[in-house]
Predict the structure.
Amino acid sequence: MDQGFLRFIIGNPQFRDYVARVRTGTSIPHISGGQIKSYEILLPPIAEQRAIAAMLGSLDDKIELNRRMNSTLEAMARALFANWMDSCSGYIEEHRVQSLIDEGALVIGDGYRAKNSEMGTDGLPFVRAGNLKESGLDLLGAEMLGARGVNAAGHKVGQVGDVAFTSKGTVGRITRVSSRTGRFVYSPQVCFWRSLVPDRLHPNVLYRWMATDGFMRQVDAVSRQTDMAPYVSLQDQRKMVIQLPPPSRQIAIAHELKPIDDQIAANAEQSRTLATLRDTLLPKLLSGELSVTEC
């Protein structure tokens, strides 16, 4: 058996579903060697196995390349932002987050507390902490909040320019909502910071500031105040301090960063499309329903 082909068999959703059905144990779920041997697979000729592995592997390679490119672009953007903040040091003013809220320039909220009866298939993805990825918000595989819950969620439906922030458990994971993200609803595991007046607080500057060590130090200072899992309350967030230059300078750096931000969003969208294509082809190729020569 080709090793590359074997890797995709293990990654096949059908195999994961099989493992979920037969595993035993509550504290540490596991399956036996015999159960693994009982899993039936269709083995095409070795040449077909290699061709399947090469095709699917090329999709994975492009996804990985996009990930590395975005990692480099993010590092460039953060360096530009840091240098820009240094150059604006004489103009920067500290603002209490609560004061920006009081001015109507910013809103901070947590996610919608959905009832089990509100979950469904006819609404929007319900974003949890695990959906915040390095590449952005990953809506694939998210639970769906039904239409009734979406209507009740109100302003907790994501908007372009939002900065999403995990405030419970794995605290401090940050990403933003781009025009390519799609519509979704925040769950209680995720908070959002939303600029209401871009001329006062530019959304891209807000995101870049929240990605700095200065913001994370404030998060770390309050996230472990109890013996329970790390948690940053809305009250804690409103007490934080943000450093901002005048709006005209915010617009200037946002304009400078826009090409980088657009490329990051485009790469992330392409990777999501490729992952969907791979996951659609995978079971069809492994079952023999589709052959490599037909793709």
